[in-house]
Inverse folding.
């Protein structure tokens, strides 16, 4: 498997529902529980230190403000200029996940801990100073500054929470997987990060998945969801992926190692069959690599996770023959291309592919 020629630029991905223009009209008004709180900078920083506020390190690394912009925030507070509101999401354990305002809170945290030296050349009494260098009056003005927090309740439906987060995020727009990475930070998000970073995953997906938007981790998330959860309970993809992360955070290390082994095995099985065309609609002798299809990924990564590499190699020709026949069926192609996240289409494509695998392998089991 050669990884040297992998394209580092992400491509268009097929088989995903569009969520850019999500509507809140689907939710009863009274279910969108959002409360507001007013807390001082000192109180919020104390809670951050205690772990009650989640400051995701992935985003701090990727989206950090330069020192001069952080300095201007501190200057604004000292000049008593009102700040924009902060949006937080409450998780099932009562922790607050920062959705909008991460850089501002990070700035306060750095400054009060004397990690930020102000760059304010036009303010001689502030320039090149850290927090401990300020007068008690200015220190109090920073710590006593009131922050207005809007908290999205943990009971709000998962898709509604993500829709709200999309609307309120005032900084760099976050993808839905990045939001999930904030909301369910723990064993699960560590698992996604590690699996998406493996050479095998990058090779089989051909470098088509955007790392910055965490599209690569979303694909790992999809495998985990369809492997761990009962398909009968599937209703909505956002909820489905979130449920998987919740479940993974409760699993022990042994279960996660087993899940990793199944994932890596299925990646290898798919690559053995289709090479660079894995998880892409294609014909037997096609040279040009097609677009990665998320819905095809779901059924093939799950389907070949249940068989050994030896089994797959022994039945390779029949598997490919059956796959190419299936990819010509109009109903199946429709189910992996148009409105692919609807329950009917998700369950249909899993039904027909599981039947395909069962017929190939069961025919040779006796």
């Amino acid at each position: 498997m050669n990884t040297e020629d992998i394209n580092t630029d992400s491509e268009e991905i097929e088989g995903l529902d569009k969520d850019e223009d999500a509507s809140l009209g689907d939710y009863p008004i009274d279910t969108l529980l959002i409360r507001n709180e007013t807390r001082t900078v000192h109180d919020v920083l104390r809670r951050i230190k205690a772990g009650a506020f989640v400051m995701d390190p992935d985003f701090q690394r990727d989206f950090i403000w330069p020192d001069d912009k952080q300095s201007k925030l501190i200057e604004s507070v000292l000049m008593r200029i009102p700040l924009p509101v902060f949006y937080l999401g409450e998780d099932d354990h009562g922790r607050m996940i920062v959705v909008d305002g991460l850089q501002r809170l990070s700035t306060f945290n750095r400054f009060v801990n004397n990690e930020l030296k102000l760059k304010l050349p036009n303010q001689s009494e502030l320039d090149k100073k850290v927090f401990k260098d300020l007068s008690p009056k200015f220190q109090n003005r920073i710590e006593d500054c009131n922050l207005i927090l809007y908290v999205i309740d943990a009971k709000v439906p998962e898709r509604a929470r993500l829709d709200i987060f999309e609307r309120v995020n005032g900084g760099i727009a976050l993808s839905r997987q990045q939001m999930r990475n904030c909301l369910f930070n723990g064993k699960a998000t560590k698992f996604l990060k590690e699996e998406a970073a493996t050479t095998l995953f990058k090779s089989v997906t051909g470098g088509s998945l955007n790392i910055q938007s965490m599209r690569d981790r979303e694909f790992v998330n999809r495998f985990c969801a369809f492997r761990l959860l009962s398909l009968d309970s599937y209703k909505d993809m956002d909820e489905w992926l979130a449920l998987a992360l919740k479940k993974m955070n409760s699993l022990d290390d042994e279960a996660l190692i087993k899940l990793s082994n199944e994932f890596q095995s299925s990646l290898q099985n798919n690559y053995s069959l289709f090479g660079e065309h894995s998880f892409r609609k294609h014909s037997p002798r096609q040279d040009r690599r097609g677009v990665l299809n998320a819905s095809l990924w779901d059924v093939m990564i799950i389907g070949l996770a249940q068989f050994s590499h030896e089994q797959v190699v022994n039945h390779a020709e029949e598997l490919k023959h059956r796959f190419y026949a299936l990819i010509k069926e109009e109903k199946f192609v429709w189910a992996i291309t148009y409105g692919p996240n609807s329950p009917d289409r998700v369950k249909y494509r899993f039904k027909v592919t599981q039947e395909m695998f069962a017929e190939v392998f069961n025919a040779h089991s006796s």
